[in-house]
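Sorry to interrupt, but I need a hand with the structure work. Please put the record directly below this note.
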Amino acid sequence: MEPQDDAFLRGFFQAIHSPPLEPEDPRYVPLYEIPELVTDDPVELLARGIEWTPARSVQLFSGFRGTGKSTELRRLRHRLRRAGFLVVLCDVEN
């Protein structure tokens, strides 16, 4: 890659800022409602781990920047609140 291409791509990547979406946001695409993806739904897997643990639960949810982690955590919050859990979502960036 040429240095000027690298500089352009680095600047472009750093300039992109898309805030997390709430599950009700019309821009949110519910990928995991597609039957082929239902078994791989990270929110359902995390929710199950939390709901089935009697006292405390520690879950690891990772991924590259901009892949939708915060958006999916908001969907998890929505899911757990419906199940009667008290959920606190802390954005460490803020």
Remarks:
- The chain has three helices and no strands.
- The chain has a mean pLDDT of 87.
